[in-house]
Design goal:
globular; alpha/beta; about 375 residues
Amino acid sequence: MTNIRVLILNNYPMDRVIQEVNLKETPDQVLFGVNRLHEYGFEPIFLPYPAIGRWSKFQKLLGRLRIPLELGDLQQQMLALQLSSQADLVYAPCGSQTHLLQYLRALGLYKVPIVTLMHHSFLKGKLDFLRNWQRSLFIRGADKLPCLSKALTKDLRGIGANHTKLALLEWGTDVEFYGPWQPPGSGVIATGRTGRDFLTFAKAIAQSRCHGTVIGLQGQLDNPIFHTSSNLKIIEARNEQPAPGQNRGWLKYPELCQHMRNHATIAIPLFAQRNLPGLTSLMDVLGLGRAVLMTRNRHIDIDIEAEGIGFWIDAGDVNGWVERLNWVEDHSVEVQAMGRRARKMAEGKYGSHHFSTRLAKLLKSVL
């Protein structure tokens, strides 16, 4: 049986991440199913990132001219056009790469089906009147737009996406990477890079009876409160992408997980959001089996309170954080039970194997 050839266009180098996964340095959920496609009869063809050439230089020129065109990654897409005769399908694990291909497909000028995994809504701005036609073409040119949250599907329907193009594809965590569940340590830890409101968390720790840890990047934690609170520990890593097998740069995932494993609860403090930051850390919560305190975000589908694995807190609500931090400090038995429930969720429908199975079915549906 001939494999289905699928071009993979992504905004970080999949070959590097596959190396990291194979070295047990990274959980496989960050590959968004591509590492298991061969199990379902697909042959993935990874296009390089960053893709460097005349089109990437042209795109930089357009950027300097501040022309409001959303074109995706031009160099990657030009490579995809060259490989069209060898491809049965295009899969983009993120929504930033394939704009031009989708415009061409919407106009009937590109024949290869396209599936683009959507993480975020289109951000609103002053020049939306110049971008709306592009976004309409982007939607028309996708054969399927699977979304990581229900709120995102609703947002896309609101700007004209037909429900037949949309599908909810809930992300899943790599249970095997995190290893067997272990009883929790003590205190609360906050990590992450995107949209993090570590300042609110630090203020709350200083006013609570709970010990906390923040793991951030150099330059991210300069406020004096991070260095004057007796019950707050700070770990700063270099803001540099490490290479597979190397230890320089920000913390490798196994080391990060050990820090989280040593705590009772994982905190995900966020600024007010219109998108989906925090979901990666929530996958760590499920994989490690820890309770969670998280800033409320409509784009997160997992209702941590309804599932009994943690509590929501409003954005910027220091008093709300103090209340929940003190609760965690006083209820160690309940906190451990929350972590157990979180792990069972990862062992069920929120596992990366389950995500890959649903992805493969969706990809085959457009052929």
